[in-house]
TrEMBL record:
Keywords: Coiled coil. The keyword Coiled coil applies. Residues 93-120 form a coiled coil. It holds the Pfam family GerE. Residues 277-342 form the HTH luxR-type domain. GO terms for biological process: regulation of DNA-templated transcription. InterPro entries: Sig_transdc_resp-reg_C-effctor, TrmB-like, Tscrpt_reg_LuxR_C, WH-like_DNA-bd_sf. This is Regulatory protein, luxR family. PANTHER family: HTH-TYPE TRANSCRIPTIONAL REGULATOR TRMBL2 (PTHR34293:SF1).
Length: 348
């Protein structure tokens, strides 16, 4: 942090390595600035002007090429020219934003994984060994405990609802209790998957919740099913792929703090149910961007489908469309080209 602060202060006061804040080395920045100021210089003249060796110039050009700050010259064969700062800085900023978003996603996934590890460990521990953990062994126990928790709620219910479209039976059965809570002034915030927007019945249910005072938003994917009551009790499945396998009721302060932070982070990147889908700077919908990240992480069509709340056939169609747009013949190649185009951040 001290080093970063010193760099910021240096840049603020007009230091020469301003672009190091955007990922360039000092040498690469010098070469980029020289190419902008002297567009006719070749490698030898750049080296002489900057006092750098041919190898240093070529290494800097390789870095600039990877960052899309230089391109082949249209006027001189086998030569490179600097991309204008207006375009180049937008590329660097977009890349940093993508890296930040990917880092945040890794933090969110880590929080969910940590909570489930706690749940799995507690499940195997002797009864009473962890007073802040309660194991629920089946769907009947889970449903009974959820009813008891929601009836006793005082101020707030936060929920992740993965799995795509909800069944009409479940939605209809939940409305009386939801109405009771909302009438009592309880705050309700629920995150569904973007895919529910294709289900008229689920959208109608979400609109009904909003009309009665709840907040409903959607995200491309969710790490697990989760319910948090009054920021003091959380219910999370032992197995995120099979919520019927059992669940844990968690009340430990550290665990609840992490899970509430996970919810708020996902909520900050979500869209209200009534807001139409928009495309990002690369022309991707939120669902396509989520699918691309899962694809690059090496997940199967089946897991991508589950995370997005769509059928495996739809997941394959989305993946195929992305590969076609990237002109990629394999998923590996798609990941490489997505990074090159700035659609995904480089792997750390």
């Amino acid at each position: 942090m001290i080093e970063s602060g010193q760099k910021l202060a240096h840049a603020y006061h007009g230091g020469d390595d301003v672009l190091t804040l955007l990922g360039l080395s000092t040498t690469a920045e010098q070469v980029y600035r020289a190419m902008l100021a002297h567009p006719d210089d070749g490698v030898a003249r750049l080296g002489a002007r900057l006092g750098l060796s041919k190898e240093q110039i070529e290494e800097a050009l390789h870095t600039l090429s990877e960052l899309a700050l230089v391109r082949p010259s249209y006027d001189r064969d086998h030569e490179l020219c600097a991309v204008s700062p207006e375009v180049g800085m937008e590329v660097l900023l977009a890349r940093q934003q993508a890296e930040l978003a990917a880092h945040q996603q890794r933090i969110e996934a880590s929080r969910a994984a940590a909570a489930q590890l706690i749940a799995q460990y507690a499940e195997r521990s002797p009864s009473g060994a962890h007073p802040w953990v309660e194991y629920l062994g089946g769907l009947d126990q889970i449903r009974d405990r959820l009813v008891a928790l929601t009836r006793d709620v005082r101020t707030e219910v936060l929920a992740f609802a993965p799995g795509g479209a909800q069944t009409e039976e479940n939605m209809k059965a939940s409305q009386p209790l939801n109405r009771e809570l909302l009438d009592r002034g309880v705050t309700m915030r629920t995150l569904y998957l973007d895919s529910v927007r294709n289900s008229p019945a689920t959208v109608a249910h979400a609109v009904w919740l909003v009309e009665h005072g709840a907040e409903v938003r959607t995200v491309p994917s969710l790490p697990t099913r989760l319910i948090i009551v009054d920021r003091s009790t959380a219910v999370i499945p032992v197995d995120s792929e099979d919520s019927s396998a059992g669940a844990m009721v968690l009340t430990g302060q550290g665990t609840l703090t992490a899970l509430c932070a996970l919810f708020e982070s996902m909520w900050a990147g979500s869209r209200p149910i009534g807001e139409p889908s928009t495309r990002d700077g690369q022309g991707l919908t939120p669902q396509e961007a989520g699918a691309l990240q899962l694809l690059a992480d090496g997940h199967t069509d089946e897991l991508i489908a589950k995370r997005l709340g769509v059928s495996p056939r739809t997941a394959r169609r989305i993946a195929g469309d992305l590969m076609e747009r990237l002109n990629a013949r394999s998923r590996f190649q798609a990941g490489v080209r997505a990074v090159q185009k700035g659609w995904l951040p480089p792997h750390p």
